[in-house]
Amino acid sequence: MHGITRAQFLTGAIATGVGASALPANAAAPRRPFGLTYRGVGYEVADGETPYTSYNAQRMRHDLWTIRYALWASSVSVFGDGVERLRATAERAAQLGLHIWLQPRLGDRPENEILEHLAETGKAAERLRRQGARINLSVGCEFVLFVPGIVPGADALERIKNLLSGKYDRQQMQRRLDRFIRKAAAVGRSVFRGQISYAAAQDDHVDWRLFDIVGIDYYGYFNRHADYVRDLRQYRRFGKPVTIAECGSCTYKGAPQLGGMAWDAVDYNKDPQEVKRGLVRSEQTQARYIATMLSIFESMGFYSATVYEFITPDAPHLSQGRYDLDIASYGIVKPIWKSATNPGPHWHWEPKAAFMAIAKHYAQARWR
């Protein structure tokens, strides 16, 4: 899958034109003259691969404090599964004065369970909104990959393979995606009275009339700033505010060019897992790409932008290059484990160059 971005493997579906919004192409989206309204980072709540790297409330509180006071973020995207984890994390973020995107991601489960999980998450978001929290609800992320039945495949990885190989019906995929997005939007509206959005792949066809804010997971790569602006301008045509729900890069040379597929850089069949040969770790590559994108989003006056993501606990940074799984991570901090196979109870993280670049950008924007 190297060399193909998430946007590229969905190109075939896009070519059909099925399900595109009927809104006029020249509609003018509301925008600020300059600068994002909210500047954030993504924070996942999920079970880890070891007891030590699973969700931990104490660690969460420390991480959110760091996001607010060391990273200078004004927003956090809380995503993952488990309504109680989502609620507790969002509640702590609200206490710290952060704006919140709350996004449930229960994947590879029956449709009704995913929608029930969304409903309960939305209720938690509504309670926080009524208590005064600045909070938006995102009904989900890239349903093509995470919701069974839209394209063939038992899990997201198998669905990606089928999309890449063309083993799916394009028009049927779009009909199923449209149907599920309508259901998710209806569920979100039924329980949450604030503004809602959805995190779409950057070339997805979505009926944005269902949502208040256009949400895009953006992993584009161009050589010139003007080309980014030209590419991003298309999301204004729906006449609504635009949020960059995700944007980031893995931590090796060439990763930005691979965008949303740069994570495919580890041989998971080996024990312990190994980074594929030929990759060169580069924190500066990650930092430069993120800093560039944040400046472009600012210049376009989007509603918000969220860097993906704060940490990937199960991708440790190790001095032995072939076991340095952090290379294939979008995290802006690097987990430091006891060994390649054992994090140990006292594992910790250290900031990457990207963390420093984001903190500089957000601090300057805060006082602009």
Oligomer description = single chain
What low-confidence regions span 5 or more consecutive residues with pLDDT below 50? 1-31
- Return the domain count: 1
| CATH homologous superfamily classification | Glycosidases
Radius of gyration, whole Å:
19 Å
Q: How many individual helices?
A: 12
Q: What do these coordinates show?
A:
By secondary structure, this protein is of the alpha/beta class. It has a single domain (6-14, 35-366), classed as Alpha-Beta Barrel (TIM Barrel), CATH 3.20.20.80. The protein contains 12 helices and 12 strands. The protein has helices at residues 6-9, 11-16, 57-69, 83-95, 111-130, 143-146, 156-165, 170-191, 225-232, 255-258, 283-299, 353-366; strands at residues 38-45, 75-80, 99-104, 135-141, 196-201, 214-217, 242-247, 266-267, 274-275, 304-307, 333-336, 348-351. Helix 4 (83-95) links the parallel strand 2 and strand 3. Helix 5 runs parallel beside helix 8 (170-191) and helix 11 (283-299) runs parallel beside helix 12.
What is the secondary structure topology, with strand pairs?
Blueprint: H1 6-9, H2 11-16, E1 38-45, H3 57-69, E2 75-80, H4 83-95, E3 99-104, H5 111-130, E4 135-141, H6 143-146, H7 156-165, H8 170-191, E5 196-201, E6 214-217, H9 225-232, E7 242-247, H10 255-258, E8 266-267, E9 274-275, H11 283-299, E10 304-307, E11 333-336, E12 348-351, H12 353-366
Parallel strand pairs: 1-2, 1-10, 2-3, 3-4, 4-5, 5-6, 6-7, 7-10
Antiparallel strand pairs: 8-9, 11-12
